[in-house]
Amino acid sequence: MTHAVSPAREAASPTLYGGTGTRRITVRDLTLAKERGEKWPMLTAYDAMTASVFDEAGIPVILVGDSMGNCHLGYETTVPVTMDEMTLLSAAVVRGTSRALVVGDLPFGSYQEGAVQALRSATRLVKEAGVHAVKLEGGERSLHQTELIVQSGIPVMSHLGLTPQSVNAMGYRVQGRGDEAAHQLLRDAKAAQDAGAFAVVLELVPAELAAEVTRSLHIPTVGIGAGAECDAQVLVWTDMMGLTGGKMPRFVKQYANLRATMGDAAKAFAEDVVGGSFPQPEHAFH
Ligand code: KIV
């Protein structure tokens, strides 16, 4: 049995966003999008229902980010997220989608020991959760991990600039400022590409540097707080929908205010219950 996509089917999905295609997006589609200069959106998701909304909206790539730590599981940072948590929630996201390419994050501690540990973790996410690719932080420092995972047939997205799993060492600051840091970021991006990564996330990087990295790579860059020249943009869904509480970083554009909408709905329900106006006869069974 062959799984090759026929030219006719390929042509049915000429664009990543807004096209008519229904088949699952592949990493090859992302490479082709870079060649045609097409920009694309990526959102995080941590559960099947949210993922299905984004899939139906045509978001071509969904990241089960370890931002689930602070945006879904109630941790302060991404650091405590475990492979069990990542596997469980990634499987839910995959079940909620039929078109989006689902990328699962390798959580802190699941790949830093070396290439063999990284491959074991990536394999678990692919086999048990069904993700189509994995993401890991670091360029040169994660070179062997990226190489072995890619050679084993699992697509890898690399994550550079601000790498939240290193928050205890680097804090949350713009990265790549100054000549030496900028050169290191370029070296990291090239290292990730040479190791076989299919895309590179650039987080909190000066826009000019992100543009230079984007021009110098043949794989797509996915920006978050990295300016408008990246090939793609990603946002954490709870941030861009206004569900996350507290002050947002300035790179976040808020497209909805779910926190207020949900709070208002909860209060309206509570008032109906307390005041006796819910349930009404049409909500009851006899
Ligand atoms: O975990 C995450 O959501 C991420 C994005 C911010 C890129 O890594």
Radius of gyration: 20 Å
Query: Which overall shape is indicated by the principal axes computed on the Cα atoms?
Result: globular
Helical content, roughly? 40-55%
CATH topology title of the largest domain: TIM Barrel
Indicate the low-confidence ranges by residue numbers: none
What structural class should be given to the helix and strand makeup?
A: alpha/beta
What ligand species are in this complex?
A: 3-methyl-2-oxobutanoic acid
Q: Provide the CATH top-level class of the largest domain.
A: Alpha Beta
* Beta-strand proportion: 5-15%
Determine the mean pLDDT. 94
- What's the arrangement of strands in the largest beta sheet? 1-2-3-4-5-6-7-8
Query: What is the β-strand count?
Result: 8
CATH level 4 superfamily of the largest domain: Phosphoenolpyruvate-binding domains
The overall number of domains is: 2
- CATH architecture descriptor name of the largest domain: Alpha-Beta Barrel
Biggest sheet statistics: 8 strands, parallel, barrel
Q: How many helical elements? A: 12
Euclidean distance between termini CA atoms: 55 Å
Q: Topology as H/E string?
A: HHEHEHHEHEHEHHEHEEHH
Binding site for Mg(2+): 66, 105, 137
GO molecular function: 3-methyl-2-oxobutanoate hydroxymethyltransferase activity; magnesium ion binding; methyltransferase activity
EC number: 2.1.2.11
Main location: cytoplasm
